[in-house]
Design brief:
45% helix; DNA-binding; 9 helices; 2 domains; Multidrug-efflux Transporter Regulator, Chain: A, Domain 2; mainly alpha; three-stranded antiparallel sheet
DNA sequence: TTTCTAACA
DNA sequence: TGTTAGAA
């Protein structure tokens, strides 16, 4: 069993996550509402954050504080991810997909009623995962289509 | 006690 | 961003 998998274990309740990240609970909820992050939900609908989730949020915080871009700005950038190419969906699926034409929010923030994404968990999708670390985004983009 | 959603300041 | 309502 590799230890890295522990990083994906959703073990932090929202209060702990907020303390570790030094941000407020409402802010954490806001990021989720805006589609920037998809925390795991427990049986009782409680949010649970993994170490990777926390790192992803750190990436968002850096963008907002250091790069001075807004939540809407981040959403717009994430909306430009060529997800159809990354997951290799068909031209038909792509043309029928809302997130292909919509540039206001990331693909995983959409409800996919049809196509391959309809049956997939966005939280587990490489499109979502690959853009979780600030340091690896450029590399990810460069490798698209290879 | 803690967190949830939703609405509002 | 923070606060508040009522419910779980």
């Amino acid at each position: 069993m590799d230890l890295n998998k522990l990083d994906d274990k959703p073990i932090f309740p929202i209060r702990t996550a907020a303390e570790l990240l030094k941000i407020s609970i409402p802010t954490l909820r806001l990021y989720e509402k805006e589609g920037l992050i998809i925390p795991h939900k427990t049986n009782s609908n409680q949010r649970a954050y993994s170490k990777h989730d926390l790192e992803r949020i750190e990436c968002i915080r850096k963008s907002i504080k250091k790069s001075k871009i807004s939540i809407n700005g981040i959403k717009a950038m994430l909306a430009m991810i060529p997800c159809w190419q990354i997951i290799g969906c068909s031209d038909l699926d792509r043309d029928n997909c809302i997130s292909y034409s919509d540039s206001s929010k990331p693909c995983w923030a959409h409800k996919h009623d049809n196509g391959v994404c309809a049956t997939n968990e966005c939280r587990e999708c490489t499109v979502y995962k690959d853009f979780s670390e600030c340091s690896k985004v450029k590399e990810t983009i460069q490798n698209i289509g290879k």
